[in-house]
Target: dTDP-4-dehydrorhamnose reductase
Amino acid sequence: MKTLVLGASGQLGQCLKAVATERNINTLEFPDETTGDILDVAALKSLFSEKKPDFVINCAAYTAVDKAEDEIALCRLINQQGALNVAQVCKEFGATLIHVSTDFVFEGTEVNLLKENDIAKPINVYGLTKLEGEKDIQTTLAEHYIIRTSWLYSEYANNFVKTMLKLGAERDELSIIADQIGSPTYAIDLAGAILDIIASGKEAYGVYHYSNEGSVSWFDFAKGIFELSNTQVKVSPIPTSAYPTKATRPKFSVMDKSKIKSTFGIAVPYWRDSLKVCIDRLIS
Model:
């Protein structure tokens, strides 16, 4: 199955390339940001016409959560209009779309595992525009998989794990938010799950949740990072109110993964096990 990866230079795009290489999969193509620009419909049509993809993985997104509160139009252009553009071109060329979304589509006031059909009620611009993109895909293209994920990190790009390792080496003490609960997700694991969906041959279209197993606060996540990397730094828990940000974050966004596991037989690693793999690769 020939597969195009849009947003290939981002964290997940780089992880898809790494996993495809590791698995000796040579059917993925990674166009650059100009050739695969999700805001340039003519460029997309030219790319699809040349490559004739069976699958398209859309990793392109505006993800600067706080900045989005000031750049609403740009955030919406990429996360909503860009997603719609990709869906429309996929429909025209008969390609199946795998689109990556976020736990931030939820309000975060529940304390139960979030299921795919739970009411989505974003509380920030980023989450709202990602939900708008989801809805446009659903009304445009039947052949789609929307995969919501959370707290992505890896060896690539900027992320919480790399930031903590850097700060832990520079400072003696850090204060980390302890009242936001979610599931860290190793982007290498998510990339593997996406490739498993393609390889399954199943046409079980719809919305799915994928994150690593388990739930932690950012404080516990940071402690895990420092323990596994043998970084000596004092970590203190603080409430969200002590570290105000422009965008409001969900307090609880732990997602139920039973649907993706039962449908595709995907094994989901525990967050700390995957974190150890990533840290070992980062510091080796």
